[in-house]
Amino acid sequence: MKVTAKKLLATSIIATLATPVVADITIEEVVVSARKRSENLQEVPIAVSAFTEGTIQSAGIERPADFISLMPNVTIVDTANVGDTQVNIRGIVSTRDAESTFAYVVDGVLATNPNSFNEELLDVRQIEVLKGPQGALYGRNAVSGAILVTTNEPENEFEGKVKVGAGNNGTKSASAVVSGALVDDVLLGRLSISQKETDGHYSNVFRGGQGAVDYLEDTTIRGRLIWNASDDVKVDLRAGNSEVEGGAINFNAVFAIPQFETFFNSSYYADVNGHDFIFANNVPGINEQETNEFSIKTDWDRDGVDVSLVVSYSDLEEFLLSDGTSASFYAYDGTDSCLADRDTLNNMPVGFGGAGRADLFGDYFAPFGVNPGTVGEGVYGPYTPTSCDGYQYQERNQTDTSVELRFTSDEDSELRWIAGLYMAEIERDVVVAYGQDTGNGFLLQPYVPADGPNPTDLMFDDTFDTSVKAVFGQLEFDLNDTMELAFAARYDREERDVDNNVPYATGSGNNANSSGFINPAFTADNDSIPSRSATYSQFQPKVTWSWAASDDINVYASWGVGFRSGGFNSIGSEALIDFWYGDTCPFFLPTCGDPGIAVDAQLNVKDEYAKEVSTSYELGAKMQFMDNRLRVNAAVFDTTVDDSQFFEFFAGPFGLMRVVTTIDELNIRGFEADFNAVVTENFSLFGGVGFIDSEIKQNINRPLSVGNEAPQAPDRTYNLGAEFDTEVATGINLVARLDWQYIGETWFHTMQGEESPTVWNLFYGPGNSQNFSKAKRDAYNTLNARLSLSGEQWDVTLWGKNITDEEYLEEVIQAPEFGGSFIHPGARDSYGVDFSYRF
Questions:
Q1: Which side of the chain, N or C, has fewer Cβ within a 10 Å radius?
Q2: Neighbour-count burial of 839, counting CB atoms closer than 10 A to its CB (0-12 exposed, 13-18 middle, 19+ buried)
Q3: Per the domain annotation, does 356 fall within a domain?
């Protein structure tokens, strides 16, 4: 009989666990607040991954990606700019330019801005990740789950901690925490400060390899005051400021047009996974953010009921500047700056009279070919060292205020219940501007007139106002000594308005592809763009049954509905896409002159997108074995999503366009399991597996995609870790930890090999269709390692991330009508040392 290594390992673990010498060792009890009350993790009828303070320290969890890598069926993409993250929980992914799909709650306060999630996890005590719809208790848009972060509370005793660190890629960090009583037992305070910077993993070859591409600088300050106003009233005040600067739009382009391969070479129909990255921007990407947050949470303990009132405010101001994409369409080909750059920065071989700058573009016509002198020749790439591709400027500013009033029964009540009200006012300004790079610098503002240094040629600038009102509640009661039934519900109503801020103006006149006005909704007869409004509402019930089958086994089943509000794309999006990619001519004018006639992509992009509603079923079990030295939790789930919101990226002669569309019906099924085992007094193992089987059932926007997999949902995820903890000298402990993660093959678009028309039909005639069969991200795995020595007041830690230096793609943004993908590389190996001192 053949015995595999996996079977041997499993047999060894079970045998060791059964050894009488370690029979008195158990896994520590983890208390979570998943249902707004303190409960044992193994008794909560929700799939929850919890990370205690000990795990946070030993695993080196400092940002969200660090704990997401430790769970099955949860992944993250962090590429375009700081805060622009897409988190996938059980196949449902948060969408760029739309609301999040999960609730992010810090110390009981719901974060309203999706960008606030990707922040420094400073002075954190516990993290809980809840899977499945959680809107009834955790707020709007909790379609896929909720992530709860609990920071350390100040106490009477004065304490503090300082930490410094350094690593490769110019990485430096410093943080400090002080905490104690301002008035004993009455007023307690805690202050945390963190500063980090890194040059990143990639450099700009146009700047001699000195210009950092994916750099990051983060300074965060957070304060917390606890006022025990009386024995029954507690007031929790939190405030924070964060200033972040980093790289932006660090992408390369890969073509996916089989017909181009026939006439040119294989570089025009390439596998995205085999790409050699070159960053050679003459407009180095920069992203700056400043976030201010403030909240007050008041808890009043009354007889039989606890009353909580939460008031929060946050303000985010953000902009980014980077290179553009329009060089391939000769938008600025005839300008003096473009001609001068092409004369000196071309990759035509020297033997043919060129500059031979293969270092900036790669080999000649593989796939980009930049010639000197002649207008309208060559295949230029996006994000190049020349001014021919223009620039892009974006803003994402948001201010929001929210109020939540919640009533909670006592935990020991026979009938346990929660009821509450929620209101929020959100104002979001979104700017996407595209214009000419004259070589004279950039004004960092949405609109630059024609006589400015970087005149605007395409602009979207809208203010989105949202008013949210919701009621929610949950009722739990025991059916008998071992069974419980819970009913939860939430009703959301969101009123949305959008106003256009684009001035009625023409562009620079230098963009050969411009229709004249800087927004396509303007015409000679229409100098204004009307405001729009819509209301979205949804009732979201959830039913949960749980059964304590034995002292060590708990089984649960649930059914629930999730909701994510619809919204608006920037005004003019529909008109722009129709003009370039759609056959919008009336039947009596079959050749009206729109370039979209030659493409006729038959898209269904609208300036408004529908609300997303999901229905999810789940069956799970939480089990303990071997005297609580082995825990295994598992669940199966089935989710149907109606109007799943999906981010689409369009690149073409106009520049670029970001919109949200919907997939009419999407089905996601899956299984996941995780385990935690105490093997010996010093050694523990932990890990998980996740499988996703998804299918697009209906998609009016792209009918050819029906039958394909859900975008950005890897078919499988694995994680496995081990930790060894021992005393090596009196009062000195050694902790060694390894964490391995595997992410399966991943599609990033609904189109997964089906051919559809591209804008190149406009230039070269019909038949130039895209095919994304080579645009699927390969599976990859990473390995992190940490080695710590700890004394009573100090710690020294050597750490490494992706220590095998695995090369992989972080994201593939496909633009079907462009005929290619914009790809971003993953982080390479990093390592360093940290020292901390407690007092």
A1: N
A2: exposed
A3: no
**How many Cβ atoms sit within 10 Å of the Cβ of residue 336?**
12
Q: Could you tell me how many residues make up the chain?
A: 839
Write out pLDDT tens, residues 339-381: 999 999 999 999 999 999 999 999 999 999 999 987 878 888 8
- Which helix (H) or strand (E) segment holds residue 637: the answer is strand 630-652
Residue 413, pLDDT score: 83
| Contact status, residue 45 vs residue 37, Cβ threshold 8 Å | no
Q: Are 487 and 475 in contact (CB under 8 A)?
A: yes
Looking at residue 4, its amino acid is: T
Cα(390)–Cα(438) distance, rounded to whole angstroms?
Answer: 8
- pTM as predicted: 0.92
Task: Pick the closest to residue 482 from 569, 436, 545, 437 (CA basis).
Answer: 545
Helix (H) / strand (E) element for 237: namely strand 233-246
**Beta strand segments in 256-345, E:** 286-302, 305-323
For 648, counting Cβ atoms within 10 Å of its Cβ (0-12 exposed, 13-18 middle, 19+ buried), the class is buried
Assess whether pLDDT exceeds 70 at residue 586. Answer: no
Strands (E) across 381-482 are located at 391-409, 415-435, 456-478
3-class DSSP state for residue 148? strand
pLDDT digits (tens, 9 = 90+) for 676-733: 999 999 999 999 999 999 999 999 999 999 999 999 999 999 999 999 999 999 999 9
Q: What pairs with residue 98 in β-bridges? A: none
Closest C-alpha to 292, from 262, 259, 316: 316
Radius of gyration of the chain (CA): 28
CATH number at residue 14: 2.40.170.20
Domain that holds residue 324: 5-333+376-838
Domain membership of residue 557 (yes or no) is yes
Instruction: Give per-residue pLDDT as tens, 297-311.
Output: 999 999 889 999 999
| Number of Cβ within a 10 Å radius of residue 535 | 12
| Strand partners for 809 | 825
Placement of tokens 């970087």 in the chain: 454
| 3-class DSSP string for 772-825 | HHHCCECCEEEEEEEEEEECCCEEEEEEEECCCCCCCEEEEEEECCCCEEEEEE
Burial call 154-176: b when 16+ CB within 10 Å, e when fewer: beeeeeebebebebebebebebe
Phi/psi for 499 (5° steps) reads -125, 140
Query: What does the H/E/C string look like for 458-471?
Result: EEEEEEEEEEEEEE
The pLDDT tens digits for 406-443 are 999 988 888 999 999 999 999 999 999 999 999 999 99
Q: Are 706 and 672 in contact (CB under 8 A)?
A: no
Q: What values do phi and psi take at 569, rounded to 5?
A: -80, 165
Helix (H) / strand (E) containing 49: strand 48-51
Phi first, then psi, for residue 670 (nearest 5°) are -170, 170
Evaluate if residue 320 carries a pLDDT over 90. yes
* Burial of 793 per CB tally in 10 Å (0-12, 13-18, 19+): exposed
- Token representation of residue 299: 């808890």
282 and 387 Cβ atoms separated by less than 8 Å:
yes
- Measured CA to CA, the distance from residue 20 to residue 9 in angstroms comes to 19
- The count of domains in the chain is 1
Task: Name the β-bridge partners of 563.
Answer: 613
Q: How far apart are CA 272 and CA 267, in angstroms?
A: 10
β-pair type (211-212, 171-183): unpaired
Which amino acid makes up residue 206?
F
Q: Which two tokens stand for residue 374?
A: 């002649």
State both tokens at 232: 């029954």
- Identify the H or E element spanning 359: helix 358-361
% of the chain at pLDDT higher than 90: 78
Residue 277 lies in a domain: yes
Least confident range from 294-303, 651-660, 750-759: namely 651-660
Asked if the bond preceding 530 is cis, omega within 30° of 0, the reply is: no
